[in-house]
Specification:
7-stranded mixed β-sheet, single chain, 330 residues, 3-stranded mixed β-sheet, globular, 6 helices
């Protein structure tokens, strides 16, 4: 609807020193977009017919060790996990998240909105479960929460010196299964972040976590992980963009205009919403590419990314950033 005429106003920030990142249901191959690309609800339209899907083949392994498998014919994150499950004879629900070109739990290589056509996919599956009592002595726990686009929220970053950083058993990559007995399977990233933020200060709370199954050389890892162990990074310029609505499409990597606009929108996200996520920014830039005015852009945002309830002033600034990038203004 037109700006200023009933659009939802800015919600109270869900996190301050903590970050939340959007659920993704689609993918790009750069890119894969959605599962960690387009932001969609967990329930989408039926997948497109198989004859409309790109017949692109990707190589994959289980991150803790396995033979190499080949997967193809997927259009979103759920279908990707299903293909991985078929390749290795495991339930798709065992897949927690994927990294590109490294078997390490490296959040810088997390499969998100972009997958290069030559990228190698490593699937991290469920490992040990653990239960941890945490005393919330400060307002911020020091966690960045993201999700896999298929119903699992997990820890993407732990701020150094924070409450969680001092608890050695909690690690980057751990899936948050429940908080104080409230099961979080199927919850979106910001719901989990909001619940953590609203926990009362000065009291204990119970986290049930599931860590990714690790190979021997991954045991004891606390940080985001190091770069790939001898696996060549993909160099293909092609992009497979997976969408929850409609068939996947093969595209080129972002143009100079897109890269500049994405960077500016990413800065605005951090300033207004307390999150930084280039894939969400890329989705917003794509929505604004062919819009003629800010009202059309606002309507497109409400339709595709309405759960974020972007405030009007933020939408105006994003529209301006996209417009500046189009005409080459920095």
């Amino acid at each position: 609807m037109p700006l200023g005429l009933g659009r939802r106003k800015k919600a109270t920030p869900l996190v301050e020193n903590e970050e939340a990142e959007p659920v993704r249901a689609g993918l790009t191959v750069a890119g894969l977009e959605g599962g960690a690309g387009d932001v969609d609800s967990l329930q989408g339209l039926p997948p497109p017919p198989a004859n409309l899907r790109p017949r692109l083949v990707f190589h994959t392994q289980l991150a803790h060790g396995s033979p190499t498998g080949r997967i193809e014919g997927f259009s979103n994150v759920r279908e990707l996990y299903a293909k991985i499950g078929q390749a290795f004879g495991i339930p798709p629900t065992e897949v927690m998240f994927c990294t590109l070109n490294t078997h390490k739990v490296d959040m810088e290589k997390l499969l998100g909105g972009q997958i290069g056509l030559e990228d190698f996919i490593f699937a991290h599956v469920k490992g040990q479960r653990k239960e941890v009592d945490v005393f919330k002595g400060e307002d911020a726990l020091g966690l960045t929460i993201t999700d896999n686009g298929a119903g699992y929220a997990f820890i993407k970053r732990i701020r150094e010196g924070s409450i969680i950083d001092r608890i050695q058993v909690i690690n980057v990559g751990d899936m948050i299964e429940s908080i104080n007995g409230h099961v979080l399977i199927g919850c979106r990233h910001y719901e989990v972040a909001k619940m953590l933020k609203e926990l009362p200060k000065g009291r204990d709370f119970c986290l049930k976590l599931v860590e990714p199954l690790k190979a021997f050389d991954m045991i004891g890892q606390r940080g985001a992980g190091r770069s790939a162990s001898g696996v060549q990074m993909g160099t293909g310029r092609g992009t497979l963009r997976l969408r929850a609505k409609g068939p996947a499409t093969v595209q080129e990597l972002p143009s100079a205009f897109e890269e500049k606009a994405i960077e500016k929108v990413d800065d605005l996200l951090e300033n207004y919403m307390g999150i930084r996520d280039s894939e969400l920014a890329a989705s917003m830039v794509e929505l604004g590419r062919d819009k003629r005015n800010p009202d059309e852009f606002a309507e497109a945002l409400d339709e595709s990314l309405g759960d974020f309830a972007f405030p009007d002033e933020f939408v105006f600034d994003v529209w301006g950033a996209i417009g500046d990038a189009k005409v080459g203004r920095v």
